[in-house]
Amino acid sequence: MRTAYRTCPFCEAACGLELTVDGDRVTGARGDREHVFSHGFICPKGAMFGQLTHDPDRLRQPLVDGREASWDEAFDAVRAGLRPVLERYGPHALAIYLGNPNTHTMSGGLYISPLLRALGSRNVYSASTVDQMPKHVSCGYLFGNPLIIPVPDVDRTDFMLILGANPWESNGSLATAADFPGRLKALQARGGRFVVVDPRRTVTASHADEHLFIRPGTDAFLLFGIVHTLFGEDLVDLGDIAGQVSGVSSVRDLAADFAPELVADACGVPADRIRGLARELAAAPAAAVYGRIGTCTVEFGTITSWLVDVVNILTGNLDRPGGVMFPLAPHLTDEAKRGRGFRTGRWHSRVRHLPEVKGELPVATLADEIETPGEEQVRALITIAGNPVLSTPNSGRLDRAVAGLDFMVSVDPYLNETTRHADVVLPPTDAARKGHYDFSFLALAVRNFAAYSPPVLPPEESVPDECDILARLTLMISGQPDTDAAPLHDLLLQQALQKVPAELHDRVTGDHPAERLLDVALRSGAYGDRFGADPDGLNLRKLIDNPHGIDLGPLRPRIPSVLRTPSGTVELVVPPLVLETARLRAALTRRHDDLVLVGRRHLRSNNSWMHNVPALIKGRDRCTLQVSPADADRLSLTDGEPAQVTSRAGTVTVRVEITDRVMPGVVSLPHGWGHDAPGTRLSVAATAPGVNSNILTDELVIDPLSGNSVLNGIPVELKPA
Ligand code: SF4
């Protein structure tokens, strides 16, 4: 028996885990009390680290046409399936879908980009367009880089306005904040307040100082009402960054038509409360507006995400302690550089002519690209750690489309609703056998820190590392010999060392290719040891020697060095946002008498892939349709009885839960369920399959600036089943 420490890889919170290891099994997991960031916090998912690692349904060997095969056989089958498609139809006939867990692995952080470059396909899709793409686009416009995202400085703020987010259950997103609930309680304990705006009285809302119901998808009206008030009542004060912001008067002009009294009906928040929020944000010593899934996965997702930061900027809360700030991750540098700005639409999708955003196309159009004949029709698909058949809109249609592909390969540990269609499944090693560093989430942390976790268990002889799998696929797609991943590992290290003097190259340490790449990034990064020149600086060895992480202090102001806009300022208004504001203005007069569907999150769920652990699905059925008492009465629905829900895309039957936690006019169904498809190997999930909410979501409706799917605010009809 021994103890090992590692970062939890399951969500964005990046908690430290203390694992009990018995031989080659992880037998227990609890919070690491000495961890510099999470201080012992853990949620039920992290506590299941061992159960997920040793899940009997996890694939241990590749599958070729559904039967277990050797790794050589599997790679031969992938080569035999992919190469003819590439040679006959070209790179765009091969699409790739990247699931959310890629942002939680080192292989995802280091080996996906080379794979995409080798692929050269326009058909790149990911979970980003059913999640946070609007935030990338709005930050790209404002700051010149879609990956530069300010996070709420929750530990120092006095007032927080939370829109469409439920961090009590999700533990935060686009804001890495282990123990988000504890941080919100601390905010209240030091005399601060937080207000939640949400169509559901979530767990977070029930702990808030105030909860305001809002009609789904209308947060942009509320936020424009706040902006209008800030200008109208002379409350705009940009603070220390005033000289580095351009376009303030254009924002005032855009907000002119959104007086609180004009938007109140559309969003359902009283005008005096909208004005009150504007005054509170302006008056607080430090305040932060934080918007998440409910502000992104809606028709006006980009403009809503933009307005979140516009309010932060106009109230002087961008880049100041207690406001919203830019983290500085250890693998990144903080050099000032004039940027070229951000643009979308470098190419368009073939069928619906939707613009590329951040190198990818909206996953809402993947089925179009597979089903529609013609040049560059998608004929083969790679999925990596993804389950788009459950997690993308009109998934019934995508399920049928994927079944008709010429060839499909999935890198995935599970035979799930998507990978059951794959000709070849390549299962990577489990999390306990790979090192962990959060390339994505240390750049979103509410306090700067560094942590690296070496593998807890030794590698399995017969199972290639995930970096090796992706490297071999990259070589294969490039038409190079692919039986050995080493040439790509060597090439990536050479590229990483390009700016490092040759005499320092032998100082790079690490037992694994990913560790060596990380060591180079850490040593060259903002806190790095410059390959020995700064003995106090960071390197891989130092992180290994500090298994509870290294605290790098509170967030610090980073404007202007963080900006990459052409002007070197925060550019508040760009032409696409002006056009989108006109569309939003027109939507003010829409009728709002539809019943609309929203999703919801549960502490023991993480999208679609944590339902195969008994402890995470036990208890009462969580996949219910929440309906308000008023709607249940009007539609003759009975608590506990099934109801039929129909949208443009499909129909499901689901058990009704009558509750006043949803506002009238809104029904709520969680996502990630629907584990009753034949041909999967999810024996626990199949015992409580639930209903797939994405049968109802509509692939034809997207946020036009980001291509993000609309997963909240879906018009539905409802009747007793
Ligand atoms: S909150 Fe997230 S990171 Fe922390 S233990 Fe739970 S799943 Fe893991």
From TrEMBL:
InterPro entries: Asp_de-COase-like_dom_sf, MoPterin_dinucl-bd_dom, Mopterin_OxRdtase, Mopterin_OxRdtase_4Fe-4S_dom, Prok_molybdopt-oxidoreductase. One of its GO terms (cellular component) is membrane. Keywords: 4Fe-4S, Iron, Iron-sulfur, Metal-binding, Oxidoreductase. Pfam families: Molybdop_Fe4S4, Molybdopterin, Molydop_binding. Residues 1-57 form the 4Fe-4S Mo/W bis-MGD-type domain. It comes from the Bacteria. Signal peptide: none annotated. The keyword Nucleus does not apply. The keyword 4Fe-4S applies. One of its GO terms (molecular function) is oxidoreductase activity. This is Anaerobic selenocysteine-containing dehydrogenase. It comes from Actinoplanes xinjiangensis. The lineage of its organism: Bacteria, Bacillati, Actinomycetota, Actinomycetes, Micromonosporales.
